[in-house]
Write a structure and sequence with these properties.
Order of helices and strands of chain B: HHHHHHHHHH
Helix content of chain B: over 70%
Shape of chain B: flat
Distance between the termini of chain A: 47 Å
Number of helices of chain B: 10
Largest sheet of chain B: none
Number of helices of chain A: 12
CATH class of the largest domain in chain A: Mainly Alpha
Radius of gyration of chain A: 23 Å
Shape of chain A: globular
CATH architecture of the largest domain in chain B: Orthogonal Bundle
CATH architecture of the largest domain in chain A: Orthogonal Bundle
Number of domains of chain A: 2
Oligomer: heterodimer
């Protein structure tokens, strides 16, 4: 009797703990949407999403977050352009071009790259990249370009580790078959193995985009944060994440709600990315 | 082990092959270049911070009380330790129990399990600033905790939950089924089997996950600014606001007066991360060897 009770009780406890993550996602959705959606209503959905001017202190205040959306997209696109090629090529090197000894040395390096706190990246960007860009290209250094380079570095570990896993999951016979047909090592890897690992590699890019678009502290320190439509690569820009952190400290009333609504937009972006990541990695399972 | 001579190509013929196949040569160069960039960037970042920061690690930085003259990072070290401990106390049991349920208790193809997996994946993709916003709206305001250590820790707990669940799940799955069968065969109950047989052999994997979560907590900034606050003091209760090392660094680097102290804080953060990664690796390697 007692044994049965204990068994039931423990099962219930384990079940409740498993519920926590579902509950957390629900709570996050409820509180974010409840906090942010009314503001979208008050400002006007289209005025909010596509308004080109963000001036919360003006009378009447203007809450258009298009500059931040475009800013986030520009910076993320830049990061992808810089980080993805380097990341995928590094993953190819790690999976097919190096001996065990070198791999043993590279793997912890990539993990370390993933472990460095974003604030340290930001500080590094502020101290090294900003002056570098300022001296090389002009402007004041806080720019889309700087943020893109920094984010490109930050998404490297994500792209590398997931692409590498995908490349390693390709059966050896693909590679061997290509070799047997007379292809060189490089051609076998690039024309046979890489296409076979396509969905995993795309999944790594999607995760990289997620990391870049959600990154906050590092971007704030190098992007300049001017809330206006981005003009060129060497001018400053403000991202969605930066908008929240910078103004949340003193915002009141509708301004505060508009910032929460900014968070909602970011959250929806991330949800869409998650769904596409899910679709991509599911397709891999079907194929494998 | 000796290599068979069939695979061995002399350097000369290798060069010839590359000259005949410019594509191959190009790709080889591209791949090598990419690795060099990755390695150089990492070494440069770590090296730069260490070289610039270590000289600034003066004793006055580790004084017990923060003042605007000594800019001590000691209070934030203590706060960081507190936050790590409390967040783990909250998140580790929940995450481990959740994984136990998913691996040991739930039936295969259970719809509930699918929902837990999807939500866990969703949680792991949410940016930290969104966690920060949620913590502010829910813990700080709706639950009326105010800007406090406890609000920060609860926010962080949700954030590290997916990491703990995922690593524990993998660790549990890698425990061979013979262990379970043996335990049941000896007449142990399911609960006893989980706690006496399965969990002990999954400890290294779980530990590696927990160490990685410590790394995430230590490096977190955006989720904490509006939940745990930025006051530089040693917290005396869970209701106090205090800043962790990362927030300390953020505050310092925003005021351009304290660049040297920011360098020093970066060094401390980097060293913590290096130690954490080292131990996670050691444990993970032990785990792998134990499996073989």
């Amino acid at each position: 009797m007692k044994k049965k009770l204990i068994d039931k009780l423990s099962t219930a406890i384990f079940f409740l703990c498993a519920l926590v993550s579902i509950l957390s996602v629900l709570l996050i959705c409820i509180f974010l949407f409840a906090g942010g959606v009314p503001a979208m209503g008050k400002i006007g959905f289209f005025d909010f999403l596509f308004g080109q001017v963000w001036k919360p202190s003006d009378l009447p205040a203007l809450y258009g977050i298009l500059p931040m959306i475009v800013g986030s997209l520009y910076v993320t696109a830049g990061a992808i352009l810089i980080g993805v090629p380097i990341g995928i090529l590094t993953a190819i090197f790690m999976s097919h071009f190096c001996q065990k000894g070198i791999h043993k040395f590279l793997k912890p390096l990539v993990e370390l790259l993933a472990g460095i706190p974003s604030i340290v990246y930001g500080f590094f960007g502020l101290m090294v990249l900003v002056p570098l860009i300022r001296d090389q290209f002009g402007g004041n250094g806080n720019s889309i370009l700087t943020a893109s380079i920094l984010l490109g570095i930050m998404i490297l570990p994500t792209v590398i580790s997931i692409s590498e896993a995908a490349l390693r999951a390709v059966p050896d016979m693909y590679y061997e078959g290509a070799l047997a047909l007379g292809a060189t090592h490089e051609r076998s890897v690039f024309s046979v193995v890489l296409p076979a690992a396509k969905s995993g590699v795309f999944a790594s890019i999607v995760l990289g985009i997620g990391r870049a678009i959600g990154e906050t502290m590092a971007v704030i320190m190098v992007a300049g944060n001017q809330a206006r439509m981005p003009v060129d690569l060497l001018k400053g820009v403000r991202t969605l994440t930066a908008n929240i952190v910078i103004e949340m400290g003193y915002a009141q009333g509708l301004h505060r709600e508009a910032l929460i609504a900014t968070g909602v937009v970011l959250f929806v972006f991330i949800l869409l990315l998650n769904i596409s990541f899910h679709l991509l990695s599911n397709r891999k399972q079907v194929k494998g | 082990m000796k290599r068979t001579s069939i695979n061995q190509i002399s350097l000369n013929s290798r060069i010839k092959t590359y000259l005949r196949n410019p594509f191959s040569l190009l790709m080889l160069l591209a791949v090598t270049l990419a690795v060099l960039i990755t390695v150089v960037v990492l070494v440069y970042i770590v090296g730069y911070i260490l070289v610039k920061g270590v000289p600034y690690l003066t004793p006055s930085l580790f004084e017990f009380v923060y003042t605007s003259t000594n800019v001590s990072l000691f209070p934030s070290i203590i706060t960081t330790l507190f936050m790590v401990a409390i967040s783990l106390v909250i998140a580790a049991p929940i995450g481990i129990f959740c994984a136990i349920y998913l691996v040991e208790y739930a039936k295969r193809g259970n719809r509930f399990v699918k929902y837990v997996r999807i939500t866990t994946e969703t949680l792991s993709g949410i940016p930290s600033i969104v966690y920060g916003l949620f913590g502010l709206l829910f813990f700080v305001m709706a639950l009326n905790m105010g800007t406090s250590i406890i609000a920060g820790c609860l926010t962080l707990s949700i954030m590290i939950l997916p990491l703990i669940i995922r690593t524990t799940e993998e660790a549990l799955k890698s425990v061979p089924d013979t262990f379970r069968e043996g335990s049941y065969g000896l007449g142990a109950t399911r609960l006893r089997t989980v706690f006496m047989v399965i969990l002990p052999s999954a400890v290294p994997g779980i530990l590696a996950g927990i160490i990685l979560s410590i790394g995430r907590i230590v490096g977190e900034t955006a989720a904490l600014i509006y939940t745990a606050g930025t006051i530089a003091q040693i917290p005396t209760s869970l209701g106090d606001s205090a800043r962790t090392l990362s927030i300390h660094m953020y505050s310092l680097s925003r005021e351009s007066l304290h660049t040297s102290e920011a360098y020093a804080t970066a060094v401390v953060l980097l060293i913590v991360v290096l130690i954490i990664n080292f131990f996670a690796n050691v444990i993970a390697n032990k785990f792998k060897r134990g499996k073989l």
